[in-house]
Amino acid sequence: MNDRIEALRCIPLFQTLSDGDLAEIAGLLIDRKFPKGATIFEEGVSGDYMYVISSGQVKVTKMSDDGREKILEILADGDFFGEMALLDHEMRSASVKTTVDCVLQALSRQDFIALLRRNPDIAMELIRVLSARLRETDEQIRGLLFERVDGRTRRLLRRMARDDVPSQPEYLATPTMTHQQLADLVGTSRETITRVLKDLRDEGWLIQKGKKYLVPKD
Structural domains in the chain? Predict the structure, then answer.
């Protein structure tokens, strides 16, 4: 139980809660393990659970009109998803699939709603996070309309880079992402994103280590 409480304490949604509240939440969570490439839920299906990522990485996707998968977001340790279906009881607005082996904590709709009613701090933090996501969506739309691809790429990498790099403390690292995933998130072609990444590396702003990208903190 203590390990689960410590894991919850690292999640922004639960950071302001007391040990007693965290212990209560820990007792409600269901451990679920998913292998790489698994579908956690599909767009258009009703949802009964929200999920918190204990470890791993998932992609949030929608199908385009021509049947292609469009990546909306990449989420990793400490992130959560699936909460909207629990709040409005509508169909899932997107699909979520694992990109690596994942350990998730699932919280049922009934327990989630009861938790929000008992803990105003969680409700306020949820509002804050959802507002931030809405602002990010607005920025993505603005970027697609007005901003050049290199500017959109810089902004995306800055947003995605959250992990410290002990060997290079002046940098933050993104999750593992392929060029195609980056292209989908930026809204361009894989060929274009490959060229932009090379330009950013050449000018010294970006360091690439495998499928992770290091960007300066400032």
Answer: 2-143 (2.60.120.10), 148-216 (1.10.10.10)
Q: What is the SS3 assignment for 98? A: strand
How many other CB atoms are there within 10 angstroms of residue 109's CB atom?
18
Residue carrying the six token digits 């007005």: 146
How is residue 141 written in tokens? 């739309």
pLDDT tens string 38-68 = 999 999 888 889 898 989 999 999 887 777 7
CA 14 → CA 19, 38, 56, 136, 149, distances in Å? 10, 27, 19, 21, 35
Which stretches does DSSP call E strand in the chain? 30-34, 39-41, 49-55, 57-63, 69-76, 80-81, 95-98, 102-108, 163-164, 171-173, 207-209, 212-216
Question: What is the token pair recorded at 21?
Answer: 């509240």
What is the pLDDT at residue 25?
A: 82
Taking 60 as the threshold, does the pLDDT of residue 214 lie above it? yes
Q: Is the pLDDT of residue 198 over 90?
A: yes
Q: Tell me the mean pLDDT in the region 170-193.
A: 90
